[in-house]
Amino acid sequence: ELQAQARMKLQEAEDTLTEAERVKSNADNYAARVQTNIDAELANAKKTREDDEVYAEEIQESARSATDALMTQTRAGADELASRMRRETAEDIRKIFTDVEVARASAEDELEAQRLLTEAARMRVRSSKFETDSFDDFKQQAA
Prior knowledge:
Strand content: under 5%
Structural class: mainly alpha
Distance between the termini: 205 Å
Shape: rod-shaped
Number of strands: 0
Radius of gyration: 60 Å
Helix content: over 70%
């Protein structure tokens, strides 16, 4: 009977060992599948990060290009505005200069007219004085 019990115990031990080996095999298989999934997710994450970095660089380059184009356009607009303002200012200065020249010429004409009138008045005064002196001389000679 002891032998039968020992055999039963041996059989139970062998069954437990077989079950333990099966559970271990299942656990090893599950661990291998989980590791494969982890490796795949890690590879996907790396690929996604690389794609995102490339996309970020493309966006930055596009933004730089747009900024450069805007700056170039702004500079060209500012240069054109400055050029137009210089032309308009030069035209205004020419107009003012012309007005000053006209005013100067008018002032010179006015001064010449005043000089002529002054000269004519002097001549009248001299002529009048000459007539008075001549008349006085004539009176003295007649007397």
